[in-house]
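In pairs, describe these two lines:
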Amino acid sequence: MEDSVITFLEKTLQRIPSSSLKSILSEWGFLSAEQLQDLHFQQSKHILHNKVLAFCEENGVRIRHVIQLDMIYNHEYPNKRNWSVYQFSGQEDDALVLNMTEFSQKFKVNLKDLLRHVSIGMKKCEDDAVWIRVAWGDNFTKPNQFKPTYVVYQLQTPYVFISNLNVKHRPLLSQALVIATKHDEIKEIQLRGRCLKSLKDLVLRRYKQSFQTHQLKPLQERNSPERDQGIVHEHAKRLADLKEVATQTFGDGPLPKLETAVFKLETKFKDPENRILTNRPEPFRCAVKFSSPSFLESLKSLVTLGIASAPVSPLLSSIPQKARNHFVISERGPGVPSTPAP
């Protein structure tokens, strides 16, 4: 077994949590039933990994086998990666009727025509998603298996989710995806996060959305005619009103999980008393970034508790409807930055 294969296998095993090692190795299917039975998963991780490495060497493990293990791990733990959402446009008539064999062949042939050394793994999962793993090399060096790009193409939709794609490889992957899926163009839609399921739920509208039946108005202080009932009743009424506003804005179900929301301001500085900045030809630029383990749920809670003013600014409340969390605010109003195809 080559040293590069051993190192790749060791690093892959180290990422797998002990609680999932047994199930992932079973799904991998490279070890025999007898070898799996000989593994004592209560042992220390170091001892267990050494035994797995010995079994793999005995079975003649190759780089393609470790790639399969890496894909199983990333499918099991997609939230360990950062994902960006891209959208196809200009589809051919039969674009949605995807033949998996044809797709796989076109993608691999096109990418290998563009790059001499590239490693491609592909797997269709039960949730109608095609998982693609691309390890990049060039015309002189072998593929780097430690920094692959992951692509998740959701079948029968115009959306693809990509992780760890650098600028150098964007046009190559873009061309291969466009040809294989029978579309004309692909572009980023400025929706990013770690929770792959939530990103899918946002673009495919698979969460419980809010439907406002009237224009929300700012809450006003109420003068209770019966002050003798005490402040408790007044406070409870206030919280009930706030909860109603939060429900009307974000819905009453769980919200998709986003970790950030970024707003970039690009506009002319306007102040008649500050001619130095006002007369600058370049726009005034600044950025505001909101961060939270679950930003939308946190924002909803802040409204419910009365910490954030209600109603919520449309810049924030429209994030689920627009399926975006990166915006540019310019003279023309809020929008999304234009970016090249991947």
About this structure: The chain has a mean pLDDT of 86.
